[in-house]
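can u do me a favor
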């Protein structure tokens, strides 16, 4: 480290763990020690690099809560998408029968076609686009929460 001052290092770790802006931490180091900006920036970067597991452990409660909420939200979206896709397995046959009814009962060809197109778009959105979209977004939320917690998990697992 650039300094052996444990009190300064502890203060930097505390501020970084509280997710304070790095520039504010550097400014505080400048004011506390009288270092110029570049020296203080190098000190903060070195403390941040050397003590990353300790900083991650101090951020655990907040990061865990946020990651858990995002993970559960993603799980709900994935579950909904799977449920809708499974429930609508017979939907293509039903939809084809519905389109046949519209086309056979049409009064004029243009109205029947417009009604068929509207029905198809509704079918596509409700039975395919909506559940597939929820699967993709839900999966992304789950993946993002796991990646976001990677540093915290590695810091916790390093103890064992």
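np, heres the sequence
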């Amino acid at each position: 480290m650039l300094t052996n001052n444990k009190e300064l290092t502890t203060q930097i770790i505390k501020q970084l763990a509280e997710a304070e802006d790095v520039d504010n931490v550097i400014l505080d180091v400048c004011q506390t020690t009288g270092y110029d900006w570049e020296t203080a920036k190098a000190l903060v970067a070195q403390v941040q690099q050397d003590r990353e597991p300790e900083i991650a452990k101090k951020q655990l409660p907040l990061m865990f809560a946020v990651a858990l909420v995002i993970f559960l939200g993603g799980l709900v979206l994935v579950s909904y998408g799977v449920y809708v896709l499974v429930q609508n397995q017979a939907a293509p046959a039903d939809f084809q029968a519905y389109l046949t009814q519209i086309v056979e009962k049409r009064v004029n060809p243009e109205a029947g076609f417009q009604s068929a197109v509207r029905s198809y778009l509704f079918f596509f959105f409700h039975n395919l686009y909506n559940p597939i979209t929820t699967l993709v977004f839900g999966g992304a939320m789950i993946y993002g929460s796991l990646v976001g917690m990677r540093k915290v998990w590695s810091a916790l697992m390093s103890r064992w």
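Residues 6-55 form one domain. hope that helps!!
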